[in-house]
Amino acid sequence: PQPIRLADYTPPPFLVEGVALTFRLAPRATRVTSRIRFRRNPDAQAQDLRLDGEGLRLISATIDGVPITAQPDATGLTLPGGDLPDAFDWAAEVEIAPEENTALEGLYMSNGMYCTQCEAEGFRKITFYPDRPDVMAPFTVRVESELPVLLSNGNPSAQGDGWAEWDDPWPKPAYLFALVAGDLVAHSDAFATASGRAVALNVWVRPGDEGRCAYAMDSLKRSMRWDEEAYGREYDLDVFNIVAVDDFNMGAMENKGLNVFNSKYVLASSETATDADFDNIERIVAHEYFHNWTGNRITCRDWFQLCLKEGLTVFRDQQFSADMRSAAVKRIEDVLSLRARQFREDQGPLAHPVRPDSYHEINNFYTATVYEKGAEIIRMLRTLVGEDGYDAGVRLYFDRHDGQACTIEDWLAVFAEATGRDLSQFARWYAQAGTPRLRVTEDWDEGTGRFTLTLEQSTPPTPGQPDKAPQVIPVAVGLLGPAGDEIMATRVIEMTDTRHSLTIEGMPARPVPSILRGFSAPVVVEHAVTPERRAFLMAHDTDPFSRWEAGRGLAREILVAMVRDGAAPGPDYLDALAVTLSDERLDPAFRALCLRAPSEDDIAQALVDAGETPDPMAIHTARERFQRAIAAHMDDGLARAFIAMETPGPYSPDARDAGRRALRLAALAYLSRNDGGDRAARLFAGADNMTEQMGALGALLQVGAGQSEVARFHRQWAHDRLVVDKWFAVQVALAAPESAVETARSLTRHPDFDWKNPNRFRSVLGALATNAAGFHAPGGAGYALLADWLIQLDPVNPQTAARLSTAFETWRRYDPARQGAMRAALERIRATPDLSRDLSEMTARMLG
Ligand code: DPP
Ligand code: ZN
């Protein structure tokens, strides 16, 4: 099959002026009638009108009341453009079977409730329609069902016994359509917008879950206020509904006025959710809400522009979280995630530009590159044009493009206009894949006091892009004096050429540069500095990100050395870490991040960067010895932190208490290496919140203990599906390398392993892929197990199968035996008859 290409875009030949849908819901035979008012697009060339439609049983279709003669094919229906009037009414009735829809795309059922997921191309599984984001229209919807709660987009317009009608006045693409029907209960509240609109807010959940919605609701209200204050964006309907669904492929979906969420990102109580869950709920509720303007009011012209809404909305949710919590801690967490997911993607066969130029299946491009690197581009843009320039550009964007389907060119043009800047070179960030490398060298002339910093950029080749042009890289730099005082405050070097130098004259002594403060660009810095220099920055840098980064760099170098020759961490690092641990001027959450060892995958990436072949088992062993050395060296300090960071009083998910718990549990994980898990067992037994219960269980499993706690945990929580997901995941993720595959395999035979539920599937097979040494254990049993399950899942849920196949994306990193086994697993998947388009594309790209 041919890929879809950005270069082939043409405007839609017909636009839609209005859509009226009626749903008569039934599990196996839902009838959908549509009335669509089409009008010829004056800005398009004459073409046939293609209506997308998949898996629909066509009952009847008419144009202006006259039955059509055309017959649908497997993917839709073509209406010959020459025969069509300039404006006409399409009316059709189709039948679909939501109960048989296991792919969770289109209209499907979850626990007796009807719900939809239409992004990116699910609406075509509901009715015939030009299912492309540049066709925007107002929708009215009538839902008929005996179920008590019937929801769709927009405002409720009428309801009666067994039916409800909804009216969404804001033109939207079909991917934002949603319908929900079920036996649901609401946690309700209200919000008054800045201009006085009263908005009814509801979080809809299954009966019994209503006590776990308060945090999602609170996050929603704070998001609504924040978007008014930070971006001047008000909500634009009378109701805002969120629905929690157990079977969901993604995190959540921003359907206009009716967000549908994976229940794990809605439901939370202190007993059942961890601090990380609360944090994710806040972030994702905000993200989906912010899409109302960046995505819904202004949407994408085509799916190549996905980063237009996702990069911007991620950037906005990052700003929001930074305002709600500690900005420094948030930045470090975002960089950790960027490196773990996006840098990894960029290093392998799945590397692609933030705006790809071709795809087979768009669902495969909801990636860390589109989302997280997309957000980094906007952060850089803001750095380059300044806060005021950014605000002016964004204002112009909303003024000019409200109600439109736009491109990256539209987005950049508003900043070029508002600030007078030429952004043509900057646009390469959207087109070039790969993580730029920034090589830094220093020159110091003692006699004249001249200090020169030289930066050189290069971007490695990626699939289809052997050569890269230089990009605009904002490099935030500061200088420290030998005593640790800041002698040059942060300034941003705008690098546009391959090479750039900065010279400072008249320095009394050799300064210490602090490079890429705040992680001002998504690049890898290559700067050969001594461990003493890193320790100095770790102690003195005024930029919290760079301070953390210095310690991180040190830890990474030590770990790489430990993998190579079994060295042990020196006292310099251990002493510096001990100082950080007990420095009470530092935020506990920040200290917890400093204590976190680089992941096994980070170490593997570092070895690859150094031109070596990573051995997952050697990495695991070295990392374990590294953590034992820390535990042994800092036992007293860790024990003090464990006690000092107790959070008395009732549980609160706020950033302050969460930070204290994070430090306490980080200390506990180390202490368990000294006390064999005694403290962790006691904490587990007495914990009154899930953060501490899970933290204690994890600490036990990491030292090979905790089997009775695992059993107890299941007895305690067997009734709670979200907690049972955690139970599955923690056992696999923290299993010893030798037993991880067997643990995963035996859990797939557990009666609670409902593999058709994406959360549950991920909790075992996704967790296996995060246990690097276990997944890559010699012999390839991990690869074979994952491949077996992906092959089984693919016909049922191709989207989730394709997503999890990225566990194989690093295959070329490894030794010949592992490469061979991973390759064999990928080839076995690829050779499976009737493989989905999703998984076919992923395996083809990975095999290259
Ligand atoms: N558009 C969704 C989100 O990122 C994903 N389908 O919020
Ligand atoms: Zn999004």
TrEMBL record:
Cofactors named for this entry: Zn(2+)
Keyword presence, Acyltransferase: no
Domain Aminopeptidase N-like N-terminal: 101-176
Domain Peptidase M1 alanyl aminopeptidase Ig-like fold positions: 434-527
Record keyword Transmembrane present: no
Domain Peptidase M1 alanyl aminopeptidase C-terminal: 532-847
BP GO annotations: proteolysis
UniProt enzyme class: hydrolase
EC number, as in UniProt: 3.4.11.2
GO molecular function terms noted in the UniProt entry: alanyl aminopeptidase activity; metallopeptidase activity; zinc ion binding
Keywords annotated in UniProt: Aminopeptidase, Hydrolase, Metal-binding, Metalloprotease, Protease, Zinc
The reaction(s) this protein catalyses: Release of an N-terminal amino acid, Xaa-|-Yaa- from a peptide, amide or arylamide. Xaa is preferably Ala, but may be most amino acids including Pro (slow action). When a terminal hydrophobic residue is followed by a prolyl residue, the two may be released as an intact Xaa-Pro dipeptide
Cited SUPFAM superfamilies: Leukotriene A4 hydrolase N-terminal domain (SSF63737), Metalloproteases ('zincins'), catalytic domain (SSF55486)
Domain Peptidase M1 membrane alanine aminopeptidase, first and last residues per copy: 215-428
Sequence similarity: Belongs to the peptidase M1 family.
Protein name: Aminopeptidase N
Organism: Rhodobaculum claviforme
